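User: Here's a protein and a ligand (adenosine-5'-triphosphate). What would the complex look like?
Assistant: Let me lay out the input and then the predicted complex.
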Amino acid sequence: MKNIVLIGFMGVGKGSVAREVIKHSDYIAMDTDDLIESMENRKIKTIFEIEGEEYFRKIEKKVAKWLEESVKNTLISTGGGFYKQKNIKKIGTIVLLDSPFDEIIKRIKEHPKAEKKFKKRPLLQDLEKAKELYDLRRPEYLKVADVVVDVTNKSAHDCAKELLKKVKKL
Ligand SMILES: Nc1ncnc2c1ncn2[C@@H]1O[C@H](COP(=O)(O)OP(=O)(O)OP(=O)(O)O)[C@@H](O)[C@H]1O
Ligand SMILES: O=C(O)C1=C[C@@H](O)[C@@H](O)[C@H](O)C1
C-alpha cells in the first residue's frame, strides 16, 4: 500500500480526516508536527520562538528523508509548510485538503478550545499575514497534489470516504 500524504493549510482538518481514514482502512496514521514535537520534546510554538522557522524546516527535511526511505502503509498528515519538501512526491500519493481561508478560520473559531488552537500555530497569530500566506500557497498546494478533496461543509467522515475513493481510482 502506497503512503498517503495529506497536505493543506493549517487547521483545514488534516488530523480530523486522518483519524477517520484509519477507521475505514488498514492505514496507520502519523503526523509530522507530532513527530517533530516528540523528537524535540517541546512544542512547535516553542521551537519557532527559540530556534526560529529555519531550524524547524531543517527537521522537516530530516523527517521527509526518513519517510521516503523507511515508512510504508501509512497515512501521513503534515504541517502546513511540509509540501515544500523536495522529495514529497517520493513519499506517497499527495492528497490536498482544500477549503477557502475564511471557512478554515470559521471552523477553528467554532472549536470549544479555539483560543488554544490559534495559540499553538505561530503562523496564524496575525490573520492578515496568514491570509497572504494562504493566497501564496494555495496554487502551490494544487500543483503538488495528486488528489484534491474539498472539505468545505463536509464532515471529516465524508471527506475520508471521498479521499479513499479517489485514491483507489488512481
Ligand atoms: N470536516 C470538518 N467539519 C467541521 N469542523 C472540522 C472538520 N475537520 C476539522 N474540523 C475542525 O477544524 C479544526 C482544525 O482541525 P484539525 O486540528 O484536524 O486540523 P489540522 O489541519 O490537523 O491542523 P494542524 O495541521 O494545523 O494541526 C478543529 O477545530 C476541528 O475540530
Ligand atoms: O503552515 C506552516 O508553515 C506551519 C504549519 C503547522 O502545521 C506547523 O508545521 C508549523 O507551525 C508551520
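Summary: The longest strand covers residues 93-98.
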